[in-house]
Amino acid sequence: MGMIAYLVVLALTGLVIGALARLAFPGREAMTIPETILVGIAGNLAAGLVLWALIGRTTGSILLSVAFAAVLVYAIRRARGGTLTQPPQRRVR
């Protein structure tokens, strides 16, 4: 597989995992598509590292990847001033 194809597959996988993680929380999350892709990639990487450390396997499950990405989405929501059930309020300038 070429490098460009690998990057496209990585971006699509990150988008799917990030979107599923965003769906785990109610309300509209103010994240852009590139942020969603990065959260999905980070969740996938974290799940792979945890599985490698615990089991010695390098292939992960999509459920664990979505769970780690959901934790990241929650951390981003809390950092922006939201709660578990309420997204952050938009600031009016």
Outline the structure in words.
The N and C termini lie far apart (48 Å). The chain is globular, with a radius of gyration of 15 Å. It has one domain. The protein has 93 residues and is mainly alpha-helical. Helix content is 66%, strand content 0%. Helix 1 crosses helix 3 (62-79) and helix 2 packs across helix 3 (62-79). The protein has helices at residues 3-23, 33-54, 62-79. It is built from three helices and no strands.
Taking all Cα atoms into account, the compactness measure Rg is 15 Å
Helix content: 55-70%
Strand content range: under 5%
The number of domains: 1
Mean pLDDT: 85
Please tell me what the overall shape is.
globular
Number of E-state strands? 0
Key phrases:
mainly alpha
Short description:
With 93 residues, this protein is mainly alpha-helical. It is built from three helices and no strands.
Mind sketching the topology for me?
Blueprint: H1 3-23, H2 33-54, H3 62-79
